[in-house]
Amino acid sequence: MDAIVAQALAKWPNVPHCYGWLALDARGSWRMRNEAAQEKQLAGDKIVHPALIGFIQRNYTHDAQGRYYFQNGPQRVYVDLEVAPYIAHTDPVHGFILHTGQHYTNIAAAYMSAGGRLFLSGDDKLALLDDRDMAQCLAHIQSDGRSIADEQLLAWLAQRGNSAALSLQIDSHRIALQYIEDEALSSRFGFICTPRAET
Fold it and tell me: InterPro entries, from UniProt (predicted)?
């Protein structure tokens, strides 16, 4: 958390929280959602200002209920998650980088959903792999140490992971690939996609 944010929070501890105005999309972009976007269930405008993006990402965290938010000075701005709390991108040097800019190195588990999305879990963070990086990672999905064909992966998904034992090769580590239903993600990993004020 930025020092200026901590100071503002200490000075004004009871500022009402904000809901519905900020979203994280499936490719790791922050989106501002005005009232019209909220009413029409639209994604909102992509935030492109580098300094603002950096400020949001440095002050992005979650509460005990699994609601992710950006601490904007004294105010919590809760984030609507399109899919997951973090988005991972491939990087030729570091392997994976989160949308927040952090290196994502201690990956302990990998999951593929019925919709063909790849999720990585480690360091108490669940990250969806950006779909633009999926083709690169497909080559690292293996069965018995050998890369699999697209048809094998499709069959594995159709049989909910029961057709074969698959793994994801990350550097020198082989991580078991597990099947997961898309709708089970939030309960399994304890996050809330659309946090709202309790009434």
Answer: DUF2944 (IPR021332)
Q: What is the pLDDT of residues 60-110, one digit of tens each?
A: 999 999 999 999 988 999 999 999 999 999 988 888 999 999 999 889 999
- State the pTM of this model: 0.90
Measured distance CA(86)–CA(195) in Å, rounded: 16
Domain 3-81 has CATH 3.30.70: no
Q: What is the pLDDT of residue 198?
A: 77
Interatomic CA distance for residues 110 and 129, integer angstroms = 10
Do the strands 118-122 and 109-113 form a parallel or antiparallel pair, or are they unpaired? antiparallel
User: Where in the sequence of the chain do the CATH 3.10.540 domains occur?
Assistant: 3-81
What's the chain look like in SS3?
CCHHHHHHHHHCCCCCCEEEEEEECCCCCEEECCHHHHHCCCCCEECCCHHHHHHHHHCEEECCCCEEEEEECCEEEEEEECCCCEEEEEECCCEEEECCCCECCCCCEEEEECCCCEEEEECCEEEEECHHHHHHHHCCEEECCEECCHHHHHHHHHCCCCCCCEEEEECCEEEEEEEECHHHHHHHHCCECCCCCCC
* Number of other CB atoms surrounding residue 150 within 10 Å: 8
